[in-house]
Amino acid sequence: MRYLVTGGAGFIGSNRSNNYSMKGTKAIVPNNYAAGKKPERHYDGATYVEGDIRDETRLVRLCRASRAFFTLLRCRGFLIPLNSPG
Ligand SMILES: NC(=O)c1ccc[n+]([C@@H]2O[C@H](COP(=O)([O-])OP(=O)(O)OC[C@H]3O[C@@H](n4cnc5c(N)ncnc54)[C@H](O)[C@@H]3O)[C@@H](O)[C@H]2O)c1
User: Fold this and answer.
1) In order of start, what are the domains of the chain with their CATH numbers?
2) pLDDT digits (tens, 9 = 90+) for 33-46
3) Ligand 1 nearest-atom number relative to CA 41
């Protein structure tokens, strides 16, 4: 099972990504590293992909490959499409 965790390399989200890894589920974490790259917030078992979630094509592809979507971002100025991608 794979969870998509936006903001998963941030202060709050990294703990959630780590929790999933410890429970044997996988987290995929897209990040534009707008807040800087902090390797100490990267955990084994999570997959970190560099990119901006405002890229809709990319976001839909990541959603389709995931069982659930958690968003833990701190950013303004865009709406997350909440309708099911498929
Ligand atoms: N930090 C706290 O004490 C606290 C307390 C309560 C609630 N919150 C809420 O939790 C959420 C996360 O807060 P945080 O402190 O972990 O923030 P953070 O800045 O540490 O983490 C956010 C992460 O999202 C990434 N990001 C931002 N915009 C992006 C984009 N467009 N595409 C891809 N990645 C992007 C950043 O690079 C960063 O790694 C916020 O909504 C905040 O309001 C935080």
Assistant:
1) 2-71 (3.40.50.720)
2) 887 888 888 888 88
3) 39
